[in-house]
Amino acid sequence: DAGITQSPRHKVTETGTPVTLRCHQTENHRYMYWYRQDPGHGLRLIHYSYGVKDTDKGEVSDGYSVSRSKTEDFLLTLESATSSQTSVYFCAISAMSGTSGPSSYNEQFFGPGTRLTVL
Amino acid sequence: GIQVEQSPPDLILQEGANSTLRCNFSDSVNNLQWFHQNPWGQLINLFYIPSGTKQNGRLSATTVATERYSLLYISSSQTTDSGVYFCAVENSGGSNYKLTFGKGTLLTVNP
């Protein structure tokens, strides 16, 4: 257990409404990630953060924004939800050695997931 | 970007059987992880294995980084082993420790 919680765990919303998902960690990890999981696609990276107020896009970032105002919280926002954003959303942290390259250690741990349905 | 291919996509076993799951990747990697997603959706870390061999109980994994593949072995399978097994890699040429996932192997172990 890497001390990762997600809220809400389940949400049903309507097309066009804004939605914010929260990821909270208790172990002061610098790197945090948001993934979505869809049938036939595995997990795909939406956005990630490498520090407070430092964020960048992943491979499926369109329609999503993120914010990280403090180390422990990473928020994912759907400004205007669409049915194509119905998915299971996972937050992750990276527990790492602090070095880079082949000798580095970087293991990711995942939260319990949020199931979002957009009607 | 790096490509990750897992095989087989589906596998059905009788309890007690052994199995081998494969993960091929298209470029050099700094990090390779195996995960088990249980029927409740939880992602469980199995191995952090960018190279070499590790064992944990009935499970073991081997990564041959120079040949760009990793294998996950499950011996004496149990019904609780059912679920989806994911391989994920971090490309050596990438940054910020991002993982790219394969599409997974769905394992069903029947009693």
How would you describe the overall organization of this protein?
The complex is a heterodimer of chains A (119) and B (111). Chain A is mainly beta and 119 residues long. Chain A is built from no helices and eleven strands. Chain B has 111 residues and is mostly beta strands. Chain B contains no helices and eleven strands. Chain B has strands at residues 4-7, 10-14, 19-25, 29-37, 43-48, 52-56, 59-64, 69-74, 83-91, 100-101, 105-110. In chain B, strands 2, 4, 5, 9, 10 and 11 form a six-stranded mixed beta sheet that branches. Chain B starts with a strand and ends with a strand. The model of chain B has no long low-confidence stretch (mean pLDDT 94). Chain A binds chain B through residues 31, 33, 35, 40-45, 48, 50, 56, 58-59, 88, 90, 92, 94, 96, 100-102, 104-110, 112-113, 115, and chain B through 1, 30-31, 33, 35, 41-43, 45, 48, 50, 86, 88, 90, 92, 96-104.
Quickly describe the structure.
Chain A is mainly β and 119 residues long. Chain A is 0% helix and 59% strand.
Largest interface: A-B, 32 and 24 residues
Structural class of chain B: mainly beta
Low-confidence stretches of chain B: none
Helix content of chain B: under 10%
Strand count of chain A: 11
* Average pLDDT, all residues of chain A: 91
What is the tally of helical segments of chain B?
Answer: 0
Largest sheet of chain A: 7 strands, mixed
Largest sheet of chain B: 6 strands, mixed
Average residue-wise pLDDT of chain B: 94
Continuous helix count of chain A: 0
Please supply descriptive tags for the structure shown above.
heterodimer; A: 119 residues; mainly beta; 7-stranded mixed beta sheet; B: 111 residues; 6-stranded mixed beta sheet; 5-stranded antiparallel beta sheet; 11 strands; 0% helix
